[in-house]
Amino acid sequence: MTQTRRHFLATTAATVTFLPFLAHADGHGADRFETPAGDITVHPVAHASIVLETPKGTIYVDPVGEAAQYEGMPAPDLILITHEHGDHYQEETLQAIVAENTQLITNPAVMGKLSEGLKARASEVANGGTADFADMVIEAIPAYNTTEERKNFHPEGRDNGYVLNFEGFRMYISGDTEDIPEMRSLKDINLAFVCMNLPFTMDSNAAASAVSEFAPSYVYPYHYRGRDGGTQDPQSFAKMVSGETEVKFGNWYG
Prior knowledge:
Elements: E1 4-9, E2 16-25, E3 30-35, E4 38-46, E5 49-54, E6 57-61, E7 78-81, H1 91-97, E8 103-106, H2 108-111, H3 116-119, E9 122-124, E10 130-133, E11 136-143, E12 159-166, E13 169-173, H4 181-184, E14 191-195, H5 204-214, E15 218-222, H6 234-240, E16 246-247
Parallel strand pairs: 6-7, 7-8, 8-9, 13-14, 14-15, 15-16
Antiparallel strand pairs: 1-2, 2-3, 3-4, 4-5, 5-6, 10-11, 11-12, 12-13
């Protein structure tokens, strides 16, 4: 992967910030982004599971599967859970990876499923709400299906995506959703993770259309293996993304 340097206008007016992307950070095939807040390192784990080393601490997103996948990673300071499906939430995985001071943020449906021990570490946030972690605001973005035959997978109002507001750097994690208005209307997103698989979420064309509209600086296609031929091609997605957004590829299924 070729090192690149991108410019974007920060949210403060008339301020230009340089955000270099540094490929192949040490360990686990990670990528590192230099931001005004400090370095953020992205470790793709598998499918929907991500580990983020950030200036606010190490954040795990939807960690599932064998705990061995997380060996060598820093222990989680925060775990974000988008919704209750087994490729996003597994109690046994959480029990295996939580550390002494790990906090959890979940949607209300997952909060109701947590064991008492994990619930004591957790806070819930519903669509449109916010949570705080280490003086950082985390926004709960709706995540749902709009196609009639898919609405039973992710009904409106239940599941979360998240926007993490670091200093001068906003990161969006879609969770499982279609190209909903709340995604298309996002502003000032620097790094995004966007799902695409059928029949559960959306196809690569819809994902590319949404990304072209909200125009993050960088985007990772993730969660793209589907059922009955519903797997989406991240390379095809990249060709359909218009504008200045740069597509990054993680080793989600290596």
